[in-house]
Amino acid sequence: MLKLLTLVGSATAIMRLPAHVNEKALCEGGFCEDPDLPYSRLSSSQPGYQWNDAGGYCGSWASQRAFLSKGAWISQQQVRDATSPCGGNDNEILSCNVEEAWTNLRIDYDAFDNVGTELPQTDSYKKWLKSQLVQGRAVAWMILWSGQEYPIYDLTPPEGMYGHVEPVIGIQSNHPLNDTNVYDDDVILHFTDGGFETVHREFGSLEGTWEGPGEKADCGDFSYCIGFPYGFGWAIKGFKNDAGEARSVPASLAIDPFEKEPDTRNGEAPEALKGTLTATQLTKGKSYDVYRWDNTKQAFTYTEEYKKSTFKARSDTHEYVDDISIDSSGTTYYRVVESA
User: pLDDT digits over 96-107, tens only?
Assistant: First the structure.
């Protein structure tokens, strides 16, 4: 693969694609073309555009798109409202408050330990990242922009050692995915928060360097890289405090329109979204119930009030198109469970 455009000059601390970088540039050299490797695992999500208000909503957007892979729609503002400020613009999602947000939103996750892991963490982080992706878990990762000074917001490392947050949605490999070794030609798939493409990067090309506080990251010939000496990642496992977990089957949510959530913070009106839920790993002939909840407090209360549909599986997958719209500014969870 050819290498990407290097970011020139010092970028701002705004958490989004810098002015020098756009999705077209990131795709140059075939990085948005599918290498069609023999082994792969993808989570089901949708690309699009983040809000750029108040420091940038990349952390909220990356979280939102990871949540889709488990069957939940959560507005970018709802993600930010679910946590506390820790150094950015109001409750901007950073490494120091993302876990509070995910916990309050009832998200079960596995986080890379960037405090207890020996420095430099690059190899350990790659191994953790691969271990999550081969299980089909979407990951919100934090990356460095080449040429940007770190840490951002005058935070103390490891906090602030990143300039952008993106959803990583899959892995491809020339090796069986039960091989836990990390290979340089393993390929990671991620969205950019600024368009509709899926970027493919080989693991061996991901790491960069950083010389210390106030210094700029150097990603070599690439415009972005994973952190050095720190790694950042949160993998979604499912939902917390879910009484139906044992009876549940995997389900992902697709919304329409998906391209860009109306920016209510900037005065745009919310819109009605059409939700399509796809359940997998079903047993043919068994009956399943579809539940929906429209706020966090009521989520995973398995009563008739929240049951939307019952179906008998005709194959190992089933698609449920909800006839009730989803409020784009809200919080909506779905679950598919075996009928009692």
Answer: 999 999 999 999
Distance CA 146, CA 30 (A): 20
Average pLDDT per 10 consecutive residues for the chain, totaling 340 residues = 36 64 86 96 98 95 98 98 96 98 98 96 97 98 96 95 97 98 98 96 96 94 92 98 96 98 98 98 98 97 97 98 98 97
Q: Find the length of the chain.
A: 340
Nearest Cα to 197, choosing from 23, 15, 17? 23
The angle subtended at Cα 159 by Cα 82 and Cα 94, nearest 5°, is 25
Cβ atoms of residues 205 and 219 within 8 Å: no
Q: What is the pLDDT of residue 227?
A: 80
Q: Which positions ≥6 away from 270 have C-beta within 8 Å? A: 75, 262, 264, 327, 328, 329, 330
Token pair, residue 304, equals: 């008739």
Q: Which of 132, 134, 92, 82 is nearest to 112 (CA)?
A: 132
Assigned token pair, 271: 């819109």
pTM of the model: 0.94
3-state secondary structure of 292: strand
What pLDDT does 13 receive? 52
Q: Cα–Cα distances in Å, from 238 out to 68, 107, 123, 243, 315?
A: 11, 6, 26, 12, 23
Copy the structure tokens of residue 106. 């009832």
DSSP 151: S
CB of 43 closer than 8 Å to CB of 138: yes
Token pair for 60: 């909220």
- pLDDT score at 22: 83
Q: What is the pLDDT of residue 17?
A: 76
Question: What's the rounded Cα separation, in Å, for the pair 146 and 116?
Answer: 26
User: In angstroms, rounded to a whole number, what is the distance separating the alpha carbons of residues 158 and 112?
Assistant: 12
CA 256, chain centre distance (Å): 18
Residue pair 48/197 in contact (Cβ under 8 Å)? The answer is no
HSE (side-chain half, CA atoms, 13 Å) at 1: 27
Residue 88, φ and ψ in degrees, nearest 5: -95, -150
The answer to whether 336 and 311 have CB atoms below 8 angstroms apart is no
Extract the tokens encoding 220.
């070599």
